């Protein structure tokens, strides 16, 4: 069946490690008991039936453990810098290194602690980014993966089973996929094995043994990655799902920080800048024409991108905050649409400005196609 149920609770690494160890010892005990039973009941015809009647039990899966503290995990994080540049947590060629702030589990490392049967249900990574996963061991993991172009077929299966593809918890029925000619990669990840998931790959994973994995996301500096990230960003809006990667904020940072020589990638970033610049300019003109004053707010270094507190879309440059939250300096941000729904004339709102339009225009003008680096013969 496609539906995959689980409940959520919180614990610590130490407590989960104790559970993991006791689960292993219990399994060894059960194995020894089965051997003894097998020897005693070899001649008993109903022994197999009794074994089959064993009850299912709940297991615990330690997910999304934050390893972002560079002091606490210094030794482990330094070890990961030995990886090739394309797969590192931080590198100039990784789009997620240009977001300018932490996105837990995406541009930082997370740990997954597992006992046999622990399942990561089917999903694509946030905004279709690539992913790196290393099995620390000692046990194995089994992976299932489907190439990105088939995500629509899997979305249809989720709809048929009344599950939300983006936010629901689902475990594909392999027979359904084989019958519709969906190719499925299936492989075992042993201790020390490094799994690279390409842009937008649909995947689901289960632990075969007792193991620990570390994982993070990577954004290769390619037109394909950028295109799929923006497509999912727009699809998320239509589905009322928050985009964890603020693609407008990221695009402006890329224009500031990166020299792009790929025509396709350059064209897409430039188009995104143009559309947001036009939107900001139109919003400004409309607000000023209505007699609404813009209050300069600016932007601090490493300040995260802002999202609407109601509909969770990214809000760029002009932040609509209630007069009350502005005076308290709590700055509860709204997008223009949600602000106008609450107050048609924006009487109860203050509009904060984060960028000067001249600065944005200068970034736009200075972002030009770079000459490709000469290839090494």
Structure explained in plain terms:
This protein is elongated. It has a 5-stranded antiparallel beta sheet with strand order 1-2-9-4-7. It has a 4-stranded antiparallel beta sheet with strand order 3-8-5-6, with no helix packed on it. The protein has a 4-stranded mixed beta sheet with strand order 10-15-13-14. The chain has helices spanning 13-40, 47-52, 74-80, 151-160, 174-179, 223-238, 247-257, 263-289, 323-328, 336-342, 357-366; strands spanning 62-66, 110-114, 119-123, 130-138, 141-146, 185-189, 194-197, 202-207, 211-218, 294-296, 306-307, 314-315, 318-322, 333-334, 349-353. The protein contains 11 helices and 15 strands. The model has no long low-confidence stretch (mean pLDDT 94). α7 (247-257) crosses α8 (263-289) and α8 runs antiparallel to α11 (357-366). The termini are far apart. It is an alpha+beta fold.
């Amino acid at each position: 069946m496609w539906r995959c149920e689980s409940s959520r609770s919180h614990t610590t690494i130490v407590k989960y490690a104790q559970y993991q160890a006791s689960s292993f010892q219990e399994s060894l005990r059960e194995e020894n008991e089965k051997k003894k039973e097998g020897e005693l009941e070899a001649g008993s015809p109903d022994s197999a039936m009794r074994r089959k009647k064993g009850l299912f039990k709940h297991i615990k899966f330690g997910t999304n453990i934050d390893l972002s503290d560079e002091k606490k995990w210094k030794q482990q994080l330094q070890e990961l810098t030995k990886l090739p540049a394309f797969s590192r947590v931080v590198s100039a060629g990784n789009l997620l290194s240009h977001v300018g702030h932490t996105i837990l589990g995406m541009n930082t490392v997370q740990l997954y602690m597992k006992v046999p049967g622990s399942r990561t249900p089917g999903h694509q990574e946030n905004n279709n980014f690539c992913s790196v996963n290393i099995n620390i061991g000692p046990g194995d993991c089994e992976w299932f993966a489907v190439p990105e172009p088939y995500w629509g077929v899997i979305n249809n299966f989720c709809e048929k089973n009344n599950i939300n593809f983006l936010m629901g918890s689902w475990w594909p029925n392999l027979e359904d996929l084989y019958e519709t000619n969906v190719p499925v990669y299936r492989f075992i990840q042993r201790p020390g094995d490094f799994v690279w998931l390409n842009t937008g790959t649909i995947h689901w994973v289960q632990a075969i043994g007792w193991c620990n994995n570390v994982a993070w996301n990577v954004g290769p500096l390619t037109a394909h990655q950028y295109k799929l990230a923006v497509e999912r960003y727009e699809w998320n809006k239509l589905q009322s799902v928050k985009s964890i990667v603020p693609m407008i904020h990221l695009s402006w940072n890329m224009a500031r920080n990166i020299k792009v020589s790929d025509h396709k990638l350059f064209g897409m970033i430039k188009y995104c800048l143009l559309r947001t610049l036009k939107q900001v300019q139109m919003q400004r003109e409309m607000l000023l024409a209505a007699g609404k004053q813009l209050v300069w707010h600016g932007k601090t270094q490493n300040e995260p991108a802002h999202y609407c507190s109601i509909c969770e879309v990214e809000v760029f440059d002009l932040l609509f905050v209630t007069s009350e939250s502005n005076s308290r300096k709590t700055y509860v941000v709204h997008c223009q649409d949600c602000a106008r729904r609450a107050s048609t004339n924006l009487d109860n709102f203050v509009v904060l400005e984060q960028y000067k339009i001249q600065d944005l225009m200068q970034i736009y003008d200075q972002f030009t196609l770079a000459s490709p680096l000469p290839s090494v013969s």
